[in-house]
Amino acid sequence: MTKEKIVSIGALVLVLGGAAALGFWGYKNKPLVAPSVATVNGTAIGQSAFDTQLASVIASLKTQGVDTENADNLAQIKTQVLNDLINNELVLQGVTKAGITVADTDVETQFQRLLTEAGGADQLKAQLAGAGQTEAQFRANIAKQLAIQAYLLQNIDISTATVTDEEAKTFYDTNVKTQANAPAYKDVVDQIKQQIIADKQQILVNAFIASLRERATVETTI
Fold this sequence. Notes:
By secondary structure, the chain is mainly alpha-helical. It folds into 2 domains: 3-99 and 156-220, Triger factor/SurA peptide-binding fold (Orthogonal Bundle), CATH 1.10.4030; 102-155, no CATH class. The protein has 7 helices and 5 strands, in the order ββββαααααααβ. It has helices at residues 47-63, 71-98, 104-118, 121-130, 135-155, 165-176, 185-214; strands at 23-25, 31-33, 36-40, 43-46, 218-220. The longest helix has 30 residues, at 185-214. It is globular, with a radius of gyration of 20 Å. The chain starts with 22 loop residues before the first strand and ends with a strand. Mean pLDDT is 86; it is low at 1-31.
């Protein structure tokens, strides 16, 4: 079982650039603070971080055929994005408190793996440009993800996320067999087991983050 499987982007949305509030001096030298959507244990999550993440999620959902202009759908999307940002901040604060650091060699190993998956340097560069990211930001994001993985593994016993043959067969009969041109069970059983384990790991992650939130001071403004 690899460490990469423990993190779900849906649960832990990583926002490049952070969400720290920016201060400046305005009229009559009164301090003004950039608008925020929430504070987590006193740390602000900026409106700009929320807007950026919301735009990214909406763009992704549109490609999946989701009607993001529907008022109810949009309200749910905004709520989910806000919760994801809050959860992400809680975990990052936990990483800092635990003093977790990531070696440059580990970041480089992960970067090279993602570089290969992207199809090479030119393809990765194009993907980063499309996402408005630099390579430095991408590497920083990799380091952040690796730190989060290490933190979660310190606090969650993922060995409890197991799957039986009966569970896999039930999943196949319910979700795969009923589809047109469904593959044979023996051809997809390994993927099914991996999916079930990932789902169970996600439940563990969600429960741990919920426990962090119960002990945190969270205020929202939207």
